[in-house]
Design goal:
Layout lengths: L13 H22 L4 E3 L7 E4 L3 E8 L8 E7 L9 H4 L2 H28 L4 H6 L1 H29 L12 E3 L1 H45 L8
Antiparallel strand pairs: 1-2, 1-5, 2-3, 3-4
Helix pairs in contact: 1-3, 1-6, 3-5, 5-6
């Protein structure tokens, strides 16, 4: 008969595992929303001169800017800071859209920092620091996830409230929020949940360290000042 092997290796706590996976998946959604040009899209059946846009790219179909003194046609997709759009930068990039770009960029930086903090704790590198400051690593990751969630909330709230302005893109009623915006919303909820789970893990690790410290103090008290313990 085969002997049953007992796995005594420590299990990863649920809050840490779920929070880490949630942070990773939310980061993927954030990167896709950050880089894809499908935040706002026009209905194909309307044949609007505006086609689609993202944070960094605009696409037009034989578009003529109404107040432009030259009869210049904008056609195709271009980077928002490209030479083709130089003359209409002020119109394409209002202050609120620059704010959305800034919030998304900050969110990307904070989420990458959170992933680094989580990775250092999970891989125990550097070992001395993670053993001594394990709860701090998780607490930092939780705080960074919460800040990222706040940046994502501001991004989707500002964009969702301002993208229908009639002094921006023409015929706003012909447009709709597309999947890139949806990914940003999913990322917001994902980071909020991950921040909560990692915060709970931060509390658990602190309590565990406190119990271990109290246990050592009790053992030292029982042994007495002149006693010696041998292992």
């Amino acid at each position: 008969m085969k002997e049953k092997t007992i796995d005594n290796s420590p299990k990863t706590p649920f809050n840490l595992l779920a929070g880490s996976i949630g942070t990773f998946i939310s980061s993927i959604f954030l990167v896709m929303a950050f880089s894809s040009p499908y935040w706002l899209v026009s209905w194909h059946s309307t044949y609007s001169p505006f086609m689609k846009m993202g944070l960094w790219e605009f696409c037009f179909r034989h578009f003529r800017f109404p107040s432009f003194q030259f009869d210049e046609v904008f056609d195709g997709c271009n980077y928002i800071f490209s030479f083709e759009y130089k003359r209409i930068w002020e119109w394409l990039l209002p202050a609120w859209l620059m704010a959305v770009q800034a919030f998304m960029t900050l969110g990307l930086i904070f989420c990458l920092s959170s992933l680094i903090s989580i990775s250092m704790y999970l891989t125990r590198w550097p070992l001395k620091w993670t053993q001594k400051y394990g709860s701090t690593f998780i607490g930092i990751a939780s705080m960074l996830d919460a800040i990222t969630s706040g940046c994502m909330f501001l991004s989707v709230a500002v964009f969702g409230g301002q993208c229908w302005r009639r002094d921006w893109l023409l015929y706003p009623n012909y447009n709709y929020l597309s999947w890139s915006y949806g990914f940003a919303v999913i990322s917001f909820f994902g980071f909020a949940l991950s921040a909560y789970l990692l915060y709970q893990e931060h509390i658990d690790v602190k309590e565990q360290k406190k119990e271990e410290k109290n246990l050592v103090m009790q053992m030292q008290t029982q042994l007495g000042p002149g006693s010696h313990a041998y292992v």
